């Protein structure tokens, strides 16, 4: 008898299964000496893996190892996590919050990912915040197109002229492409821009800015919309905007090597009907999230996976099928596209340039003033993430000069400091690389890591998957709130 995979399951049947078999979450701080083990098993459904990973990464947890199995109607995921300092999770409130969030993904159907600046709250406070957010809305500007120096400065200046206040902005650049999401509100009265004519006016002006330096037929998109608060996950949406803008087309093909030593190989498992994807890259926070994002948005279903990191190198292995392809394994061109898209997803978040952290009192036109200083002094912004924390504006810019160098004139930074009137901290090392104990050891480890990517053979992680899962599945027990 032939067993076929069917991607679509009736939602009513799926909901019944979820009610009969609610998810079980076990948070184990005893079995592993240097990390907390989070185990989840539940009825399976489309997109559940991404939602689980999203919960953990939104809390700024580092996933050092993971085992995933979701064949059939059930799934089991095991995550080895630490905090940003590399320590086990000791806060009981945080452990309970993780359990509640992982269980909540089953009933939400779509996870609320608008947790600005990675902060988490206790259960009661989180519930109150969610109830408040449901009653409010946000105006979001989504923009993608060709990157050019001064683009963010021009956009923010137009928003000030139109009487719009920026509450947060996140922007990525990759392969001469840019994608950004800016949340706005009326400067005269706090709240979303609700008047359709007003929305159309603002959108038209922003489209003119983007189109001013765009070539004929060039891909670009500007969209202004009103969204329910908390319903859009900014980083996943940025991945989607970049993918739609085809930033992956300029990645290195032929399997395989991205500009940061990223290697992606896509093979076939003929007898099981799987594609086997092996990814080797420099390790960093949110790497698993970025990889699973692109697989989900390209409509691939992860049946099994094994993820691990060794010092500064990460290894990922996935057994996947395309949910919309009933004819069998994809063609060579589709495999090549998957290779390029995975490479692009990993490289988008690798920030290049001098990191400038800003913390100052929030005020109208702050973003416009800071980006103007960068533009007038010949600096380009490769990445930005700014948001509000109470009455303060907090976030980071990554800047470099026109030649791509990170070295920035200290006088320019002093001008930025005067514009913000607050604290300004610079970092010459990207925060998305693994932190090392000393600068001397860091250089030697990175050198060794790059050699290991290119030279050292590695046995398949999938071979270890089944024995690990069988052993771990016996240890499931619910976490106790104490």
From TrEMBL:
Signal peptide: none annotated. Residues 37-119, 140-222, 355-432 form the ACT domain. It comes from the Eukaryota. Keywords: Nucleotidyltransferase, Repeat, Transferase. Residues 437-446 have a biased composition (Low complexity). Residues 447-457 have a biased composition (Basic and acidic residues). It holds the Pfam family ACT. InterPro entries: ACR1-12, ACT-like_dom_sf, ACT_dom. Gene3D superfamilies: 3.30.70.260. The keyword Oxidoreductase does not apply. Residues 423-459 are annotated as: Disordered. The keyword Nucleotidyltransferase applies. One of its GO terms (molecular function) is amino acid binding. Binds amino acids. This is ACT domain-containing protein ACR. It comes from Cajanus cajan.
């Amino acid at each position: 008898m032939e067993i076929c995979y069917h991607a679509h399951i009736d939602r009513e049947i799926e909901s019944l299964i979820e009610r009969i078999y609610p998810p079980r979450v076990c948070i184990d701080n005893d079995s592993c000496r240097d990390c907390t083990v989070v185990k989840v098993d539940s009825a399976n459904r489309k997109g559940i893996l991404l939602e689980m990973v999203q919960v953990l990464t939104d809390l700024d947890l580092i996933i050092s190892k993971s085992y995933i199995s979701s064949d059939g109607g059930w799934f089991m995921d095991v995550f080895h996590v630490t905090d940003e300092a590399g320590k086990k999770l000791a806060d009981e409130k945080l452990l309970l919050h993780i359990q509640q969030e992982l269980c909540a993904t089953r009933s939400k159907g779509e996870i609320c990912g608008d947790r600005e600046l990675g902060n988490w709250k206790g259960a009661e406070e989180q519930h109150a915040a969610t109830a408040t957010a449901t009653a409010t809305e946000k105006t979001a500007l989504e923009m993608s197109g060709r990157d050019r120096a001064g683009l963010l400065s021009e956009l923010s200046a137009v928003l000030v002229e139109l009487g719009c206040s920026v509450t947060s902005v996140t922007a990525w650049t990759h392969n001469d492409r840019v994608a950004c999401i800016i949340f706005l509100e009326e400067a005269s009265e706090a709240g979303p821009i609700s008047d359709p004519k007003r929305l159309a006016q603002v959108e038209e002006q922003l489209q003119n800015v983007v189109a001013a330096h765009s070539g004929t037929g060039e891909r670009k998109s500007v969209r202004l919309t009103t969204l329910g608060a908390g319903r859009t996950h900014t980083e996943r949406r940025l991945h989607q905007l970049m993918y739609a803008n085809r930033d992956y087309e300029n990645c290195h093909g032929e399997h395989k090597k991205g500009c940061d030593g990223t290697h992606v190989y896509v093979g076939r498992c003929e007898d099981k009907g799987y594609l086997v994807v092996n990814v080797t890259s420099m390790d960093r926070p949110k790497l698993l999230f970025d990889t699973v994002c692109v697989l989900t948005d390209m409509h691939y279903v992860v049946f099994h996976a094994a993820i691990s990191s060794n010092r500064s190198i990460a290894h990922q292995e996935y057994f996947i099928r395309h949910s919309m392809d009933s004819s069998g394994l994809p063609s060579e061109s589709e495999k090549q596209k998957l290779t390029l898209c995975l490479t692009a997803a990993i490289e988008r978040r690798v920030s290049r340039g001098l990191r400038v952290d800003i913390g100052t009192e929030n005020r109208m036109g702050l973003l416009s003033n800071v980006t103007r200083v960068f533009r007038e002094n010949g600096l380009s912004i490769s990445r930005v993430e700014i948001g509000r924390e109470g009455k303060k504006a907090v976030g980071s810019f990554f800047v470099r000069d026109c030649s791509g160098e990170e070295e920035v004139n200290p006088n320019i930074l002093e001008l930025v400091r005067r514009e913000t009137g607050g604290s300004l901290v610079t970092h010459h090392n990207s925060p998305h690389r693994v932190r090392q104990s000393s600068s001397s050891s860091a250089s030697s480890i990175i050198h060794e890591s790059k050699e290991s990517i290119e030279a050292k053979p590695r046995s398949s992680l999938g071979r270890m998957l089944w024995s690990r899962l069988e052993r771990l599945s016996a240890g499931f027990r619910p976490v106790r709130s104490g």
